[in-house]
Specification:
Length: 238
């Protein structure tokens, strides 16, 4: 009976994944060799993911995130594509973690001491804004400070309280140009990478990844919602 129920649950999940388009890869000419084993054999031009393997990887990642959170590790969520920006912020905030969703700041990991100084300055400006001190400045100076503050908000709102390098970097879509830089920096700093990885992603040197559609908003949202629900349920049970 238990096995039958588990099968029914799995079939329901597979149905949700299909509806969200998690199974879609890109055209075969874009396929990266490192992810081929997670794709179904097909005569069609578009690649399709083996959703059984995708679900298996989702559960592995959720288990790892649960353990990392239990150990108070800092996770930096990165999703700067329009398809991932809102959802990456949502999961990071739900887990009380950090995120970059506007753009990847070059050197964020490899030159963190400089970044840290910018974050301290950002926090000082936020305090001045809250106290009303900025509003009391001469007009020209106020406009300059407000413009700079808005730029800092765009870049660093999700990491404003980050005071050391993250323990884990979670990236949606490793093939995106800015995210390739994020991956290189994390590897250089020996920070484990977790990723939602499409069929064009190079997953070499990635600690854990979920093979699935990392381009479509619905697919990204479904995968992140699944991870969040599993992590929260596991944390409640523990």
């Amino acid at each position: 009976m238990e096995t039958q129920i588990q099968q029914q649950v799995q079939e329901r999940i597979f149905g949700e994944m299909m509806k969200a388009g998690v199974h879609y890869g890109r055209a075969k000419r874009y396929t990266h060799p490192s992810i081929k084993n997670f794709l179904l054999k097909s005569n069609k031009n578009i690649e399709f993911f083996n959703l059984r393997l995708t679900l298996q990887k989702l559960n592995e990642v959720s288990d790892y995130l649960k353990q990392a959170l239990a150990e108070n590790k800092k996770i930096l969520f990165v999703g700067t594509t329009p398809a991932s920006q809102n959802k990456i912020q949502e999961i990071a905030q739900a887990l009380n973690q950090y995120y970059l969703n506007y753009k990847w700041v070059g050197g964020f990991l490899t030159n963190f001491q400089t970044i840290k100084a910018r974050l301290i300055y950002f926090r000082e400006l936020l305090k001045k804004e809250e106290s009303g001190e900025i509003q009391n400045l001469p007009p020209a100076q106020r406009v300059k400070i407000e413009k700079e503050l808005q730029k800092l908000k765009n870049l660093y709102s999700g990491v404003v309280n980050l005071d050391s390098l993250p323990d884990i970097v979670f990236i949606v879509n490793l093939a995106y140009k800015q995210h390739k830089t994020a991956k290189r920096e994390a590897i250089r700093m020996k920070i484990p990478i977790i990723a939602l990885a499409g069929s064009d992603n190079d997953v070499s040197n990635v600690f854990l990844f979920v093979p699935g559609n990392d381009k479509a908003p619905r697919s990204i949202a479904w995968q992140l919602d699944y991870l969040l629900s599993k992590v929260k349920t596991q944390n409640i049970q523990n």
